[in-house]
Amino acid sequence: MSKCRKVVVLKNFIQHINSEELMKLATFTYQNQTRIGAVIENQIVDGLGDASLPTDMIEFLEQGDSALQKMQALMSIEKNRIPLADVNLLAPIPRPKKFLGIGLNYADHIDETGLEKPEYPMFFTKQSSCVIGNGDAIQIPPVSEKVDYEGELAFVIGKKCKNVSVENAHDVIAGFTIVNDVTVRDWQFRTPTWTIGKSFDTHGPMGPWIVTADEILNPHALNLKTWVDDELRQNSNTRYMMFNCYEMIAYLSQAMTLEVGDVVTTGTPSGVGVKMKPRGYLKAGQTVKIEIEGIGTLVNSVS
Q1: Within the chain, where are the H helices?
Q2: Domains identified in the chain, total number
Q3: What is the CATH number of the domain that holds 275?
Q4: 107-149, pLDDT tens digit by residue?
Q5: What is the pTM for the complete model shown?
Q6: Alpha-carbon distance 97 to 90, whole Å?
Q7: What are φ and ψ of residue 177, in 5° steps?
């Protein structure tokens, strides 16, 4: 670890131990109005408590530290809180400008596929129209029954950037969330870009919130688990990524400008349904639960 990175980790650790609550930013609807807030246990702090805060997550992130400080101030005021059970959580970024994924990024997943380790990161696009939130249903399309789950850590870009170094990449991450990179396997392999098979409607569950980057001491040491109903299918750790979050940002930003609110999901470990015997594809009536240490749990039914 570089000296610069050690300083950042130490700074984040000091901030973490001095913070009473994780900053968990959410997009939600309440009384037919969509807005943003911060989740505290079984309540959500309503961003409308400060009229200067936007109601859109991307606009909120664009305001940077000033918006985060205002939200932190609202968290200390009891009257700004709504019972979490009374709101509808949406995906934290309901329509990201870019929704990118990486393939074959965990050593154990590469082993189970029998494919070779990629020389370069293998990125693909998920169309943002596939995004749904925690509690929404993943739909099995009429054209295929080969629908698979992929539990993944995702990061959200917090600063517009280009040509970012690996050493500075941590500074452009707003926070981390959970994504289920749902994939229609037969459609995925009809084209080498994978895009259509990754982009069916409802096949981008995201959430339940964004944990700000300062709260995650090391995104490359987080336990990741995926259950289908009560069966644990995936049980791994983000340390097994082939290309870590910072390397992904450095690579992508050589080609394209990364913008505030872009979401990049970081690959899945072994245990996907397509490699089970018999196949473990999703079926209507099942529930998928993905848990990532330090972030939370994303739960979606299948219909």
Answers
A1: 3-17, 57-62, 65-74, 107-113, 185-188, 195-198, 245-255
A2: 2
A3: 3.90.850.10
A4: 888 888 887 888 999 999 999 999 999 999 999 999 999 999 9
A5: 0.92
A6: 16
A7: -145, -175
